[in-house]
Design a protein that fits this description.
Blueprint: E1 8-10, H1 11-18, H2 22-31, E2 38-40, E3 43-47, H3 48-57
Antiparallel strand pairs: 1-3, 2-3
Helix pairs in contact: 1-2
């Protein structure tokens, strides 16, 4: 049996993929500097494609903030 990989991830799964703490994801969501998310019935989900896009925008060439 093949396990279907969902396109949607919860906060804990997203934090694990990004190697961040769940609390960090929650803080980023509150201040609006994290990846786009979906709120469905009180639960929060992230799409894998949105995470890839957000990560691409976060690329830098130097610590001073020059974008890659």
């Amino acid at each position: 049996m093949t396990k279907h990989r969902s396109d949607f991830l919860d906060t804990a799964e997203t934090a694990q993929i990004l190697r961040l703490k769940k609390h960090t994801m929650e803080n980023m969501r509150c201040i609006g500097n994290g990846p786009i998310f979906y709120k469905l019935g009180g639960r929060v989900f992230y799409r894998r494609a949105d995470l890839r896009r957000w990560l691409a925008q976060a690329r830098r060439r130097s610590s001073s903030g020059e974008k890659a």
